[in-house]
Amino acid sequence: MTESNASWQTFVVDPESELRVETGPKEAVLIKLSLNSGTAEIFGTELAPDVEYSISPNNKLAVFSWTGCTMLVKGSPAVSYTAGETPMASYLNVHLALEAQRRDAEAFSTSENALAGPRVLVVGPSDVGKSSLCKILLNYSVKLGHAQMFADLDCTETSGLSMPGSISASVFSRVVDVEEGMGGTLVSTGTSPIVFYYGYGEPLEKAKLYSKLIGRLAEVVDAKTKSDSKVRCAGVIINTPSQFSESNGYALLTQAVEEFKVSAILVVGQERLYSDLSRQFQSNEQVSVLKLAKSGGVVSRDKAFRKAVQSAKVREYFYGTTRYPLSPFSSIVRFDDLAVRRVGESIVAPSSVMPIGYDRKAQETKIVKVESFDILLNSVLAVTHADRLEALLALSGGAISAPALTADQETSLILDKNVAGFVYV
Ligand SMILES: Nc1ncnc2c1ncn2[C@@H]1O[C@H](COP(=O)(O)OP(=O)(O)OP(=O)(O)O)[C@@H](O)[C@H]1O
């Protein structure tokens, strides 16, 4: 990408207003933003004055100012305009309420009945600004000095912590970098997420497997909050996929509320969901349900756009970003030296031709052996922390008595472990 020779364009942003910028998929020149005067933030990350921020292609963002500012834009973004109507005041109110709970938790952190910080779950339909709200709440918390746990249950996520198709959690002690985003490299984020690999684009595609993995992630998050009082007091912010707001996704939503011990559900941009959830949780005093408006700036992203962003995200995992490039290397390994497994059915056939009593749902969490190398070409594989030898030793009490793990033992071992990273074949 080349630097633009164009001169800087000036935008005056009034107090409590924002400058919305969208970059297209094939920007030939780099779009840059710079704060000329006043104060401004991008999804809660404050901008430093006179620093040039590069905006990647396929990006949609808002530069919000509480007190007013002058912004400079270089290049020709697909869309750029200022808007005065934003829900930021209500988002700030939510942050202040959460902060009061964090302070209470800190005040009683050493007592016998130590309080936990707020555990907030953000739900809503597609493209209402759930991820952006999570980022704002996360950044505001970190700015006040908290070590903020963030869990991302959105496996479709294109701006999440790890590879699309995974669910993850991480403790943030730095604000999200404007250029790198949530999933920036370890250098920019200073945090390494714990990742469970689901491998499908939608939670309902293999709901049983997805449900198992969110249960495991909740256990890990719980263990971390128990072992670190700073993390416990800050609480947890949880982003969810849009499918949670559909009627067939309610079971997963309810499971997440229970397993993550959620204390507040923030419903963004859908009255009906708010009313359904208020009714469902009205007898549960531990959970409060709040509704928040969708920002007029949130942009709908079509399938093609999401696909392009997902591909860019996979590429970014291996090659890094412009500021922190990575140098991936390739190695040749014998297929026989690897244990490659996939989740789900080994044969894809209609239920009508399967034996009587065959339970397709039960197969959703079954790990099957990949016998042929050919189907792996051009695919991304997750490298699991599951250690078969260690598991065999543990099962047999120190001396290996069986030649290998059974399929069921291997399945529970793999689903129990997070992933170490990813490789591209
Ligand atoms: N105020 C705003 N102005 C301009 N763009 C915005 C604004 N708020 C969010 N966006 C952009 O709109 C897009 C959708 O927002 P976001 O990802 O937060 O929605 P979502 O509800 O999490 O979507 P999904 O359901 O697909 O996960 C993103 O590209 C985001 O950067």
Automatic annotation (TrEMBL):
Annotated GO biological process: mRNA 3'-end processing; tRNA splicing, via endonucleolytic cleavage and ligation
UniProt binding sites for ATP: E18, K60, D127, V128, G129, K130, S131, S132
Domain Clp1 P-loop: 124-320
Domain of life of the organism encoding this protein: Eukaryota
Gene Ontology CC entries for this record: mRNA cleavage factor complex
Chief site of localization: nucleus
Sequence ranges assigned to domain Clp1 N-terminal in this UniProt record: 13-104
UniProt-recorded Gene Ontology molecular function terms: ATP binding; polynucleotide 5'-hydroxyl-kinase activity
Annotated ranges, domain Clp1 C-terminal: 326-425
Protein's cellular compartments: Nucleus
InterPro entries: Clp1, Clp1/Grc3, Clp1_C, Clp1_C_sf, Clp1_N, Clp1_N_sf, CLP1_P, P-loop_NTPase
Pfam family, one: Clp1
Keyword field: ATP-binding, mRNA processing, Nucleotide-binding, Nucleus
Oligomeric form and interacting partners: Component of a pre-mRNA cleavage factor complex. Interacts directly with PCF11.
Family (UniProt): Belongs to the Clp1 family. Clp1 subfamily.
PANTHER family (alphabetical): CLEAVAGE/POLYADENYLATION FACTOR IA SUBUNIT CLP1P, POLYRIBONUCLEOTIDE 5'-HYDROXYL-KINASE CLP1
Its job: Required for endonucleolytic cleavage during polyadenylation-dependent pre-mRNA 3'-end formation.
Name of this protein: Polynucleotide 5'-hydroxyl-kinase GRC3
